[in-house]
Design brief:
single chain; 48% helix; Leucine-rich Repeat Variant; 452 residues; mainly alpha
């Protein structure tokens, strides 16, 4: 085999190349439905391709291929894919395999997906009790929910009950549920009528409560007078003092007088910032605070006024700036790039998805000693094929260059001939469908009639 040529007709008979092509195609975001259909016939793909169907982009046509796939695990991965077409996916509500129907019923609405009209009713009428039970989480017509409240399965009956449904049930059904032989059903009925809440203790009692959790809640409760809450400034419990320090009604002088301790890791933003942090006056006040957790909290807002963004982008605290880049859509390009280059947390690559990351001018990093910045050079929207070619043999960045659609076709075909680069070349979205099919042919993959 001549591995130095770009002519695919020279390929064939190399088992390692075939494995690399197949694995690379599972990583290709531009698979046409015809190629996907053929890949589904491969009994065993490379290990790194596990769960690939739950990650690959699915349009309506590709979703239809998966929903009709003979293998159960393929159909299950369609349900787990957040890009799947919801209307096509809804066909799984009638799938012949109960496990598929159950998983679909459980997560049909995940990822913010719309559940098509009529689907909950289909699931509510399923022959499997566990599927019917999952259907109760959806908005069901009263008649359907009422029917489930009389289901033969006790857990279905229990999960179907809601406070809105109860008065619409007949007296006979309510009496039957109250006397249901299954304790879990009776418990579900009891939960529809919670006991009267115990009157909350007076503010001064809460501030003096021996439980630090109660004192911490009192410290941040706006209904507790400021002067009373400030008694907790010397509390022996760190969490109590921290809660007090983030009260909205404190002046900066009062706040700085509290000996609070900033904990490591994630912190819960105070309620007043969660609820009203989108208001410019609240955002400006928090951003100007000397309390680092208030600044980190306001940096979590998706949108902020320009002056607040500018201020937080210059903050002395690294995590204020990092949070701004991870959460705020207006975080400046230079800061996003800085965080991408210097943050070493587990999710550092997610910074690249920020709308202000890819900008003209990133090509200047093509020869930078930092591999992350050389990788960033590929995100320059104005860079051409020559930049991709300069990075294609980079030991740390080259695999990204191989997947770049700007890679010239002649070079792409040549790299398909080389085992060490074949996988990433096959993952390039610019690979023509006919070439993908040629790779499948050479790998001995079945070609259903009419697939290409």
């Amino acid at each position: 085999m001549n591995k130095g040529r770009g002519d695919l007709d020279q390929l064939g008979g190399d088992e390692r190349l075939a494995r690399e092509w197949l694995g690379g195609l599972t990583l290709n975001p531009a698979l046409p439905a015809s190629v996907l259909t053929r890949l589904l016939t491969v009994e065993e793909l490379p290990a790194y391709s596990s769960s690939w169907l739950a990650r690959c982009p699915l349009d309506r046509e590709r979703t239809a291929v998966l929903v009709a796939a003979p293998r159960i695990d393929h159909r299950l991965q369609a349900v787990e894919n957040p890009t799947a077409d919801v209307d096509v996916l809804a066909r799984l509500a009638r799938d012949p395999e109960p496990r598929v129907r159950f998983v679909y019923a459980a997560i049909a609405g995940d990822f913010g997906r719309r559940v098509p009209e009529g689907v909950p009713e289909v699931l509510a009428g399923d022959s499997e009790a566990r599927v019917r039970r999952m259907a109760t989480q959806w908005d069901l017509p009263v008649a359907v929910r009422a029917r489930l409240a009389e289901d033969e399965d006790a857990l279905v009956r229990a999960s179907a009950l809601t406070a809105d449904l109860w008065p619409r049930l007949s007296a006979a059904v309510r009496e039957a549920l109250l006397a249901d032989p299954e304790p879990r059903v009776r418990d579900a009925v009891a939960q529809l009528f919670p006991p009267e809440p115990v009157p909350r203790a007076e503010p001064d009692e809460r501030v003096q409560d021996p439980d630090p959790f109660v004192r911490s809640r009192a410290a941040q409760d706006p209904e507790v007078p400021t002067a009373l809450a400030l008694r907790l400034a010397e509390d022996p419990d760190d969490s109590v003092r921290l809660s007090l320090s983030m009260r909205e009604d404190l002046t900066e002088e009062q706040r700085s007088a509290v000996a609070y301790v900033v904990p490591n890791g994630y912190h819960t933003p105070p309620r007043w910032i969660v609820e009203r942090g989108h208001q410019p006056d609240i955002a400006r006040r928090a951003a100007a605070s000397g309390h680092v957790l208030l600044r980190r909290s306001i940096a979590m807002q998706r949108h902020l006024p320009a002056d607040v963004v500018d201020r937080l982008a210059e903050d002395e605290d690294f995590f204020v700036k990092l949070t701004l880049c991870q959460s705020c859509q207006e975080a400046p390009h230079a800061l996003v790039l800085e965080m991408y280059a210097h943050w070493h947390g587990l999710k550092w690559t997610l910074v690249r998805s920020h709308p202000n990351f890819a900008k003209p001018g990133l090509a200047r990093f093509v020869d930078h000693p930092d591999a992350r910045l050389r990788r960033a050079a590929l995100d320059d929207p104005e860079a051409g094929p020559e930049l991709v070619l300069r990075l294609i043999d980079d030991p740390e960045v080259g695999w990204w260059a191989l997947r770049d659609p700007r890679l010239p076709s002649q070079e792409l075909n040549q790299r398909l001939n080389v085992p060490d680069s074949a996988r990433n070349a096959a993952a390039n979205p610019a690979l023509p469908p006919e070439t993908m099919h040629r790779l499948l042919d050479l790998s001995g993959v079945a070609n259903p009639a009419g697939s290409h």
